[in-house]
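During the no-cost extension, the postdoctoral fellow (Dr. R.K.) reprocessed legacy sequence entries with the updated structure-token encoder. One reprocessed record is reproduced below for audit purposes.
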Amino acid sequence: MSIAEGIYTAYLTGAAGQGMAMFVFRDGKIAGADIAGLTFAGNYEVKDAHLIGEVWYRMPADSVSITGASFQQGSDNIVVPLSLPEAIDPNETYRIDTPIGPLNAKFVKNVSFGDNDAN
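Re-encoded structure tokens follow.
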């Protein structure tokens, strides 16, 4: 079991605003949702003490991403490469380069999986 596995609150900031999302990292899978109703799915593996993977989601019609990208029609899958340290630091802000613009993310672990279920 990876030390990164757990449920996280992600505080996100982009050129057009801020947001918050919840992410679950478990058994090589990523799942999540944000306060605007977007859902996220993805996968990861741990290599050299880093979480390497991707997250994908779709923007709905008539929406604007926190990166500033505007969508008249719903998007196809937007695939975001992900590279984070396996020991995610809750005090660190990580830059994530998405296909629709960069954003900054701060991840705070709420729950660990395993013998001690609560942080």
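The longest strand covers residues 101-112. DSSP finds no helices and ten strands in the chain. The remaining legacy entries will be reprocessed before the final report is submitted.
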